[in-house]
Amino acid sequence: GSSNIATREEFNFITDAVNTGEKITDMWVKCYDSETDTRDAATFHTNCNNRGATVTLIKTMDGKKVAAFSPLSYGSGSNSQWVDAPEAAIINLDTKKVNRLFPNSAYAMMDSPTLGPSLGYGSTADGPLRVHNDMTTIRCGYWGNSFPRAQEMSNCFDFLGGAAKPEAQYLEVWALKTASTVTAGERNSSIASQDDFVRMTNAIRRFRPSLKRSEHDSVTPVPGMWEKCFDSTTPSTADNPASAGPKNATYRGDEHSKIVGNDEIDWIVGE
Predict the structure, then answer these.
(1) Could you count the other beta carbons within 10 Å of the beta carbon of residue 129?
(2) Residue 68, SS3 per DSSP
(3) 0.90 cut: is pTM over it?
């Protein structure tokens, strides 16, 4: 679906900022929309719990646009709990400034059935980002507890643009698509299976700014992220639908690689 808050370019900026992987068409799917869903935390949790990584987009009543990246699932059930999430981040989309909930990652996410998406150390009612039960009231506080080191934003004013008690005009939560099917379409691969594509994706080394190093498993497999651009069994480009350019979905394999083993695939992509 489309967003009332963020443009595609802003989604691309968020994707780069939080290191979710390559920018893929339709890699985010909306699980909560304050325009069409009931404005309460229970509806947010019903729609978005156990969906993996999420991005929360907020446009305040005075027109400020902010985002929050939660790298792990919400879904604590009936109890409130802290979630250790080193990749969690809050973002001001107007200034393109990003703060990461690291090194205090043990208090990065507040997962509570009576709150919407909430990040950073504090109380149930207050923290660097607290979306209250009405999915409208927003609070920011306890800044120094979550960000003991200097980052791009210095205080709640930098994050929310000065509103002392901001309210959300629009609030959306988007979940990152994750699946074992990273290729799709009407043509099969005669070489690599879906498992092979997943292993290749997981083997890619990508620099993670928050950890200050490159790591495997830094690119998340998402549907349609791989597309065939050449096939030796296709006699001409006119017969190859991939030659027409990128599509929203790509091709699917149904068997293991006939050329290389799993370790060789990992080594090739890692190098």
Answers:
(1) 30
(2) strand
(3) no
